[in-house]
Amino acid sequence: MSELLQEIEAQIAGVKTEVARENVGVVREIGDGVAKIEGLTGAMMNEMLDFGDGVMGLALNLEETEVGAV
């Protein structure tokens, strides 16, 4: 059992995580818990958005010129 545990721990230790900015937008308006963001042309419905400083959002309203996120 300890051999299996050691193998699992070794595999977990070898996992590499990378964060890359793929698309950057500008928050133009915030109100009622909704952020209106310009420049996220590649955003998809229900995509997690990183606003920085640990603040995350969820893309819900995809319009031609902006994205609405909560």
TrEMBL record:
Signal peptide annotation: none
KW Cell inner membrane (keyword) present: no
This protein's UniProt keywords: Transport
MF (Gene Ontology): ADP binding; ATP binding; proton-transporting ATP synthase activity, rotational mechanism
GO cellular component terms attached to this protein's record: proton-transporting ATP synthase complex
Pfam families, A to Z: ATP-synt_ab_N
UniProt-listed InterPro entries: ATP_synth_asu-like_sf, ATP_synth_F1_asu, ATPase_F1/V1/A1_a/bsu_N, ATPase_F1/V1/A1_a/bsu_N_sf
Limits of the ATPase F1/V1/A1 complex alpha/beta subunit N-terminal domain: 23-70
Family classification: Belongs to the ATPase alpha/beta chains family.
Protein's UniProt name: ATPase F1/V1/A1 complex alpha/beta subunit N-terminal domain-containing protein
Source organism: marine metagenome
Lineage of producing organism: unclassified sequences, metagenomes, ecological metagenomes
